[in-house]
Specification:
Pemi-like Protein 1, Chain: D; 2 domains; elongated
Length: 93
């Protein structure tokens, strides 16, 4: 177990996590952390958001193929238009 670090609670209950601990745990600006209370203690743990990880992976795959998000959106519009043009008229209204 590591040694305790004292940090001051600021206005509105804000606390600053020590830089050494943020680096060690890979916590960056904008990351989420989970806060749990147990027996009068607070446990703060990094919280990975699976959706963000998936979006990052999709973005990286698009970059490897030389595509942008705009390219993907436009191809989706084209595909939607193609599908709608193939529907019977009463369904496409």
């Amino acid at each position: 177990m590591t040694a305790s670090k004292l940090i001051r609670v600021q206005e509105k209950g804000q606390v600053t996590l020590p830089a050494e601990l943020r680096r060690k745990l890979g916590i960056k600006k904008g990351d989420l952390v989970a806060v749990e209370e147990s027996d009068g203690k607070l446990l703060i743990t990094p919280h990975e958001v699976i959706a963000n990880q998936a979006l990052d992976a999709i973005g990286e795959a698009l970059r490897r193929q030389g595509l942008t998000l705009e390219d993907l959106i436009e191809s989706g519009r084209e595909e939607r238009g193609r599908i709608l043009s193939e529907l019977p008229e009463e369904l496409s209204e």
